[in-house]
Structure formats: structure tokens, C-alpha cells
Amino acid sequence: MFVLETFLTEGIAQLSYLLGDTASGRAAVIDPRTDVEVYERLARKHGVSITHVFETHIHADFVSGSRSLAERVGTATIYLSGEQAAYEFTAESVADGQTFDFGSFSLVARHTPGHTPEHLSYVLNEAKHPDQPWAVFTGDSLFVGSAGRPDLLGSGQAVELAKSLYDTLYDFYLKLEDYVTVFPGHGAGSACGADIGDRLTSTIGYERRTNKFLSFPGFDAFRQFVIDDAPPVPWHYPELKKVNAAGPAIMERMPTIPALPPHEFRNVSRESGVTTIDTRSMTSFGGGHVPGAINIGDRPEMSAWVGQMFDLDQRLLLVVDDDTDVEQIQRLVVRSGHTEFAGYLAGGMKAWEMAGMPMGRLEQIPVHELREYQNTGTGPTILDVRSPDEWEAGHVPGADHHFVADMRDRILGLDKEQHYATYCASGYRASIASSLMKSRGFQYVSNVPGSWSAWTAEGYPVDSEKEVNHV
């Protein structure tokens, strides 16, 4: 029996796959994530052995689990592109057109450069119809409604990679039959492609008719579309590419996180190179928190924002709602490449309060009060911390713009003595921004829970034109 399992890693919107044949007992995993036990568990459920681990390319948005998975199962070989690859660890090299037999099906490697020079895709053929592909695992070259961005290696290679991507899309994918199913490496929400669709799969025929990346008759217009209109590259992507190229450390288990009582937690938080992350909700954080903590809530997107905001060598202290949440939160964090944990606050904020420790607070301003301030001409300066694309699509009238990701190293153009109220789409990123500002010495910062969603739900005015005060 043919086995196909799809794994969606929320927060980074990463897709990986387990394919197997119960008759032959062989299985493959394509682009495994960091926490790999899930693949072993499902392989056991289906009665197959993971013998092959395929990497489509050097990933930029998460730490690969290939080495950890191969070590864990003890039966698998890692297969990497032999085409312009920059891998620094030992594995089997794969050539364009190379076929891997699993019994009832085979996988054929195809060199599909553009997102990266070494990128491979894998075409799936049934053994009964070896010359009629029915599916293709596209990695980060073709997405639902989108395609992989060619600018992650820097502007110096962007045009050359855009040309390779154009050739890959038009000379390879568009020559496949319409019925071929597309299994991409990412879903909606990933920054590896622009405006990726919500569906996890598609077909070549549907993409041929609806995907804008496949609608350009010539390269020049395509180049402008994929390079000039690309969103900002997340800061941590180049760093994670280095980690994945060198070979991520083999993770036999999650790193140990010491449970620290309040006084010891406070002492460790004062050490150089230590960052305190409060993973509670924005309103809980606002009511009382460890001074200097940054609020990145326990949601799937925490992986991306920890990676975006902090260097990989930072030692992380965690504040959690409940001590039993630590392991799940840790899984979100390690996907971003962070494995250095200084500890967590044992007993949470209740223990901190009972120990008589100092408390920080962050005012929460509902949109109704923010609107009243606007009507009276009083109150804080409104700060939009969403992405440039979101800002330009529509924002609160009179707001200034300062993307939260640009605050990681320094906060320019803002007065520490001025009162600011931050908003984003829901308040999640706004709480990251406002807590970061507080930790950097801004005295009068507030957060807007509900943020843009609440503002528009109330029918308040919207300005969709780019303001001159765009910082």
C-alpha cells in the first residue's frame, strides 16, 4: 500500500512529507523539520522503515532535521543536491534525473534552480506507469499561487537566480501535464514566497490558469515582479542558511531548560547575552511582567519572531503561563535555530509576585479609546508596526509607520520621551514592539489589543495612501 503523510508546521508554514510503500517496507521523508520524532512515529504506525531523507535545498526559514532524523532512525541515508551545492557535511549527492525506487512508486530528482542554485524537486511516478508523473514535490520553487523568491542570497545573485527561476517555471513545470498534483514546501504565511495560497496542494493545470508567476510572456516583466516587488528578507534567513549548509547539530532530545526560582531567575536575567521572553498573552503581559522582558506569545508564529528578533547566540529565559507549557514552547523556539536556554521561571508570574519581585506594566488601549483620543486631538502618537505592504494597503489615519522587524538592533527616529501606542493586525506583533521599546528605555508606550482587526471591525476611518511620515 502507498503511504503519503503531510506535515504542516504552523507558524513557519513549512510542509514536509513521509512517503512509503508497505509492501517493500521502504519510506522517504522530504524536508524534515527540527523536531523529528513525528516522522518516526508515523513510519512505525504504517509499518515502514525510513531509508531515505531528501533535502530539496538549503533552507532559510527553519533548521533542517535531516541529520537528526537519520541519526534517530538509524536506517536512513541523507540525499542532497549535487548541483551547485554548498553543503559542508557528508551525505549522498543527487544528480538531475536520478531515480529512487520504493516498490510501488519511484521518485525522480529534477534540478529546479531559482529559489536557490542547488534546488531539487522530486517527481512521483507509479511503478505501473513510470513515464506518467502524477505528482511533484516542488520544495520552494513552486507554491500554490506563488513561487520561491530568488533574492534570499542577496542582490548580487538575485537577477541570475530570477532567470533560473523563470526557466524552471516555464521550461519544466509548465511542460508537465495538467493533472499532476503539486506538493509544495510551504503554505500561506511563509516569507519564502509572496502571497502563497491557503490550500496545501494544487495541480499544474490549476496553477497554469491562476498563478501570476506563470503568466509572464517574457523574462523582463517577470524579473521586475519577483525582485522589485519582493517583501523584505527576514533578518534571520541568511543566518539559518549558514546553519543548514554547515550541518545542523544532531538533536537527540530537546535541550534541557533549568527551572529557576524567582531570585535566581532575576540574577540570570542580568547576565550578558541573556534575553527574557514572556510567552503569555499580551493582556497578561500588560498586567504585570518581569521588567525588561519581551512579549512573544505562545502561538505558532512564535518560531518566526524569535528567529527574526534575536541572535542565535542569545541565551533565552522563558516566562510561561504554566510550567507544563515549557516543552511545547521549546519546540517552537528550536525551529528558529535557538538552542541556548538559560532557564524558565519556575511557578511563573505567581511565584514572581509572591517573592515580592519588581513588576513592569504595559498599558493596553482599546481601539475605542484610541479613536476618542483622535477625536479630541490628545493622546499618544499611533505607531503602525506591520510590514510595508500591510501599511500601504491601509492604515489608521495619522499613524506613523515603523516595521517591528526593523527594531531588532536599534530603534531610529522615535523619541523616548514621547507617548506611543503600537498596533499591528491583531496586537501580537504590536506587543513585541511595545515591550521591546520599553526594554530599550521608552517610558510611555502602550499596546492596542485587537489592533487593525478591531479598528476596521468598528468601521473607523482608514487611510490607504502612503503617508509622508513613513519612517
UniProtKB/TrEMBL annotation:
Entry-linked InterPro entries: Metallo-B-lactamas, Mito_Persulfide_Diox, POD-like_MBL-fold, Rhodanese-like_dom, Rhodanese-like_dom_sf, RibonucZ/Hydroxyglut_hydro
Rhodanese domain ranges (all copies): 270-361, 376-464
Residue ranges the record marks as coiled coil: none
SUPFAM superfamilies to which the protein is assigned, alphabetical: Metallo-hydrolase/oxidoreductase, Rhodanese/Cell cycle control phosphatase
Origin: domain of life: Bacteria
Pfam families: Lactamase_B, Rhodanese
Protein name as catalogued: Hydroxyacylglutathione hydrolase
Protein source organism: Neorhodopirellula lusitana
